[in-house]
Amino acid sequence: MKNGENVLGNVDRLLQRARRNTLGDLLARTRDRMPDKFAIAYNDERLNYAELDDLVNQTANGFRMDGIGKGDMVTVMSRNSLDFVIVNFSLARIGAVMIPINYMLTTEDVRYILEHAEVCGLIASEEFAKVLDQSTGRLQISHRYLMNVSADYMGELSSWTALSKLREGQTTELSDVDIADDDLAHVLYTSGTESRPKGVMLSHKSIISEYVSAIVDARMDADDIAIHALPLYHSAQLHVFLGPSVYIGSSGIILDNATPENILETIEREKATQLFCPPTVWIALLRHPDFDKRDLSSLKKCYYGAAIMPMEVIKELTDRLPNAKLWNCYGQTEVAPLVTVLQPEDQLSKLGSAGISILNVQTKIFDDNDKEVPRGEIGEIVHRTPHAMKGYLHDPEKTAEAFRNGWFHSGDLGVMGKDGYITIVDRKKDMINTGGVNVSSREVEEAIYQLEGVSEVAVISIPDAYWIEAVTAIIVPKPGVSLTTEEVIQFCKEKLSKFKIPKYVDFTEELPKNPSGKVLKRSLRDQYEALGER
Q: Cα separation of 55 and 64, whole Å?
């Protein structure tokens, strides 16, 4: 019987390997299909898929020789670069778990992530290596690797090894590691509303299920030339665009300095066909003087998401990029992150909608008792999907709360129309209860965006002795435009019900944002907390 068990166990392993589908496998398949196809460009470096795959294998072999193995937690802290892409697939090839870190975090937040995840390896660009050194706390981490430096690097970071040095002499052949589809691939820490970020555990299965959905519903194909401008540590750029691009064998341009002028110049130079930006970056592009000077006619696919796009900006993009089509992509890190898409043909007829569920997603709207609400009523958006995370790292209680009754609870409030199209009302935390009545900050923002001279606006609540929470608008005027509080209030009176009109208005040159382009409303609430006392 023992011999029979051994045979069956061996068959199981052979079947698992033959049927396996991991992040490392998808790059190998693309290499086999199109080895000479242009894969990735970064600054002056351009690689085809065979060259990219070889570098991934050499790096993976270097990690293994150095003692990094399956299940090991390894952080990555860097701006966008070629090495970031290589590390992503190299760690996947050996079954290690990549933890990309937001390089805007404080040392204290970084230390929390390193300790919470119990990392054993650090990978960073020279710019951020010292931050990681200062954040290791009580952890003893011997594996430290520098990205984007030459093999003969002679800087002051003597305890770090250059990735290019690690690759020297390594073979491009890689022996197999026993990895299952549902093994962890990434842990992404959310910026969330809590004082501490949560570690979102994404498996290879979760991520690749999302890649398939993204490719189908965002209509991606191998002829695309995509600009990867937003930070790759963020799930939107990494998993909705870079990963699917490699999966289908399209071409990508990596930008580490995503200024409006750099993005616009790159579109023209590379004849790029595809670009993803959050609304704040699209607004910055539209306002830049180079927008009408550059040849942007190659741009065919324009994606937006990560925050709500004002209707007036959608109309302007449609007018000023007549050759391009627009997609609204909605989701969050916990679902890897895409769940609904508004297609190009619906952009104007369904203004403000997040679209319908994509290929591998089922979405409903629930009330506070987890019962589905009738179509047209507000409730919390919930999902069932293989995209979903395996849970929050070391936090079964929050995992159980997020997945109660077998649905992932997004924390977003929305309405599903009779046709299945979803409109995001607000984040639960951004709803304003003023005088006992709920007001959607988004609705007020949409109204104010229609006022000539408004470049950006964020609507928040601030404490108020009478209203408890007062509707407050923080506005960035367009360059050279002077707006007054009275003008804004009068305009809102024409557009909004009386209780939705801002009680306070202030003007600023810039709204605080994280690197993925989301307005930091929590920071605004802290900054303007005393506005009602002026």
A: 14
Q: Is residue 278 part of a domain?
A: no
Q: Does the model's pTM come out above 0.70? A: yes
Out of 112-126, 164-178, 185-199, 342-356, least confident range: 185-199
Q: Quick: pLDDT tens for 82-112.
A: 999 999 999 999 999 999 999 988 888 899 9
211 vs 243: CA distance, rounded Å: 7
Query: Among residues 171, 203, 235, which one ends one of the domains?
Result: 203
Whether 346 maps to a domain, the answer reads no
CA distance 347 to 477: 26
Q: Looking at the DSSP assignment, which residues form a beta bridge with residue 97?
A: 73
| Residue 191 confidence class, pLDDT cut points 50, 70, 90 | low
Q: What is d(CA 195, CA 197) in angstroms, rounded to the nearest whole number? A: 7
Parent domain of 26:
19-203
Which residues does 234 contact at the CB level (< 8 Å), separation at least 6? 100, 102, 306, 515, 516
pLDDT of residue 8: 67
| Beta strand ranges found along 109-239 (DSSP E) | 121-125, 143-147, 161-162, 184-189, 199-203, 225-228
268 in a domain, yes or no? no
Is residue 163 one of the residues assigned to a domain? yes
Q: What would the pLDDT profile of 428-438 be if each residue is shown by its tens digit? A: 677 788 877 77
Distance of alpha carbon 100 from alpha carbon 59, whole angstroms? 17
Helix axes 23-33, 204-217, angle to 10 degrees: 50
